[in-house]
């Protein structure tokens, strides 16, 4: 069976150390009287001599546990908000159309920068400024003609089409005008 260690209070240690400092009894006698090892009493005596000047100095600030608890609670909240933020970003990107996400961004918002809003919405900032231009009538006619040629002659392939110096020349030449 294991013997439980004695726990000695600070006041008991101070009492024994003061008696050792008075030197009315030897350390061995004090050890026998208080049932403590002589080396322990010597250690307490030495500690009392070294640290006795601190009793008369300004007391150090006592750490307030409430501040530490508050800080711990705030760190917990920050962690929780980060997890929720990541979850929202992931789901926002997968369930909302890009155009809807672009409309969520407000240039008048003073609390979030435009860059941060774009990051949160998963939109490239440059896409806010991009304005799609309509194709010219000439390009549309050219694309329709290219589509018609490809549909009529799919065996021409890309190599033949790229061998022409200019697609417009190929399309408007008499060989393909049919």
Shape: rod-shaped
Order of helices and strands: HHHHHHHHHH
What Rg is obtained from the alpha carbons, in whole angstroms? 43 Å
Number of domains: 3
Question: In percent, how helical is the residue content?
Answer: 55-70%
What ranges have pLDDT less than 50 throughout 5 or more consecutive residues?
174-178
| Structural class by SSE content | mainly alpha
- Tell me the β content: under 5%
Q: What is the overall number of helices?
A: 10
The largest β sheet comes out as: none
Total beta-strand segments? 0
CA-CA gap between termini: 109 Å
Mean pLDDT: 81
Report on the structure:
It contains 10 helices and no strands. With 178 residues, it is mainly α. It folds into 3 domains: 10-53; 66-129, no CATH class; 137-176, no CATH class. The longest helix has 31 residues, at 65-95.
Distinctive features:
3 domains, 178 residues, mainly alpha, rod-shaped, 0% strand
Quick overview:
The chain has 3 domains: 10-53; 66-129, no CATH class; 137-176, no CATH class.
How are the SSEs ordered, and which strands pair?
Elements: H1 10-22, H2 27-34, H3 38-51, H4 65-95, H5 98-104, H6 114-121, H7 126-129, H8 137-152, H9 157-163, H10 167-172
């Amino acid at each position: 069976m294991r013997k439980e260690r004695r726990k000695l209070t600070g006041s008991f240690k101070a009492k024994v150390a003061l008696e050792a400092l008075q030197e009315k009894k030897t350390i061995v006698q004090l050890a026998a009287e208080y049932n403590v090892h002589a080396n322990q009493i010597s250690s307490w005596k030495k500690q009392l001599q070294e640290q006795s000047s601190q009793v008369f100095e300004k007391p150090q600030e006592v750490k307030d546990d409430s501040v530490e608890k508050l800080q711990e609670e705030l760190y917990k909240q920050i962690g929780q908000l980060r997890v929720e933020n990541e979850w929202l970003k992931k789901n926002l990107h997968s369930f909302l159309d890009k155009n809807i996400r672009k409309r969520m961004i407000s240039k008048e918002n003073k609390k979030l920068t435009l860059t941060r809003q774009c990051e949160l919405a998963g939109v490239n900032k440059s896409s806010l400024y991009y304005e799609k231009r309509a194709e010219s009538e000439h390009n549309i006619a050219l694309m329709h003609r290219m589509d018609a040629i490809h549909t009529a002659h799919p065996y021409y392939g890309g190599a033949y089409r790229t061998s022409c110096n200019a697609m417009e020349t190929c399309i408007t030449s008499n060989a393909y005008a049919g």
